[in-house]
Design a protein that fits this description.
Length: 431
């Protein structure tokens, strides 16, 4: 049989670096040929050979309703007929801002942008502008988009400034970015003791989804909040992945249940709020947001920001996820996947553990849940790759890298989960 995926990949590699427009799609970590998607519906997509896959990536998070949800498709079709982009304000931007402010308790005002990268980068600029400070704190294993100042890995030793993780980022550009270990309270305290008065913001993935799935512990999160308050730094939650996915009120609502009165100062959003269209946002308290141009001195702009088709898609998506019982059902389906995979692995005598919140999950071929990036790195990469390909051969598409969270949509049924677990049982038996 001719492999249309391979033919397309070969063509793509001539024209697009690595054949892809975002690196993880290239299957570099797991090997093999990336699947070129032809179409998608509900919980499935079909590749260029017409092979069907159960999709546990959902465009890396946005497709929380599954692909081609009728209400979303209708809203997008209607919006397209009214025009693609105007470069002038629209009612839908106001409506989407109203929805976000209603659902995310800590956010008074919001600005819409087109990607999570843009939102994270703009939030950092705003935090620096609003505080008049230079330094930012981030954590190893957290991804906040590919803005220069955020492409940093930990430096050597405790609380040192980081090194660029990408060629093309001069060390001077990351000299104000402090990289700490996730869930390490001691290091956090030492960093604030030394640099606290110069810290503009601490940015964190509250449940990190870019090193598989690692929760910030409650004591650690509590300390992040206390130290930011004490030193006047902005606590910025990067909820691009977790927002409107782990809970209707985002991850911050999960932590607010565990830490009374808990709120971040800034929130970075993306993925689900666009429902699969390029749309992201950042929000904060009114006094901070009013520092943005045209009101204040912090510049930020975008030709396609608040795009009328993207906002229609996002609004329709947010409307669906507010229906009664939506997150209860999504959370239960996701939990059933993780517990099914766990039992299947244990039956085969393999180390395995997993975790989930709402429609986001992670699993490790490892005995206990890692608490930081260094531990995630010690888990079994080659074994994960065998599992990944075994599942792919059986029509199940998990993230093609050990370092990525997975996503269940509202379109996944218990029958889909059962079929996935049955496939996993077969694969584990060969390992
Ligand atoms: C995906 C992601 C981003 C970047 O968003 P893009 O739209 O890909 O630029 C930022 N932060 C987190 C936590 C993400 O998961």
């Amino acid at each position: 049989m001719t492999d249309r995926n391979q033919i397309l990949f070969d063509r793509a590699k001539q024209l697009i670096p690595g054949g892809v427009n975002s690196p993880v799609r290239a299957f570099k970590a797991v090997g093999g040929t990336p699947r070129f998607v032809q179409r998608a519906q509900g919980a499935y997509f079909w590749d260029a050979n017409g092979q069907r896959y159960t999709d546990y990536i959902g465009s890396w998070g946005p497709m929380i309703l599954g692909h081609g949800h009728p209400a979303v498709v209708e809203a997008v079709q209607k919006a397209v007929l009214e025009g693609f982009s105007y470069g002038a304000p629209t009612e839908r931007e106001v409506e989407l801002a109203e929805e976000i402010v209603k659902l995310v308790r800590s956010v008074d005002m919001v600005r819409l942008v087109s990607s999570g990268t843009e939102a994270g980068m703009s939030a950092i600029r705003l935090a620096r502008g609003a505080t008049g400070r230079k330094k930012i704190i981030k954590f190893e294993g957290c991804y906040h988009g590919h803005a220069d100042a955020l492409l940093v890995k930990a430096g050597s030793g405790l609380a040192t400034f980081g090194n660029p993780t990408s060629a093309g980022v001069p060390p001077e550009v990351v000299q104000h970015t402090l990289v700490l270990e996730y869930n390490n309270i001691e290091q956090l305290e030492a960093a604030f003791a030394e640099h606290g008065p110069e810290v503009a913001c601490l940015m964190i993935e509250p449940i990190a989804g870019n090193m598989n799935f690692v929760r910030a512990s409650v004591p650690f999160m509590k300390r992040c909040r206390e130290l930011c308050t004490q030193y006047g730094a902005q606590l910025a939650f990067d909820e691009v992945m977790t927002g409107f996915r782990v809970a209707l009120g985002c991850a911050q609502s999960v932590y607010a249940q565990l830490i009374p009165g808990f709120e971040p100062d800034m929130t970075v959003m993306g993925k689900v709020i666009g429902g699969g269209m390029p749309l992201a946002a950042f929000g904060a308290k009114r006094a901070v947001m009013e520092q943005l141009a045209p009101l204040g001195g912090v510049y930020q702009a975008g030709t396609l920001s608040g795009n009328p088709v993207a906002t229609a898609c996002g609004l329709a998506t947010l409307k669906e996820i507010q229906k009664p019982g939506f997150f209860e059902k999504l959370g239960a389906t996701t939990q059933s996947l993780v517990s099914g995979l766990t039992s299947a692995a244990h039956e085969a005598g393999l180390p395995f553990c997993g975790d989930s919140q709402g429609g986001m999950f992670g699993f490790f071929l490892f005995n206990e849940l890692p608490q930081n990036y260094a531990t995630v790195m010690t888990t079994d990469g080659p074994r994960f790759n065998r599992f990944f390909h075994g599942m792919l051969d059986r029509g199940v598409y998990f993230a093609p890298a050990l370092y990525e969270a997975g996503f269940v949509s509202a379109a996944h049924t218990q029958a889909d989960i059962d079929a996935t677990v049955a496939a996993a049982r077969e694969v584990f038996a060969t390992m």
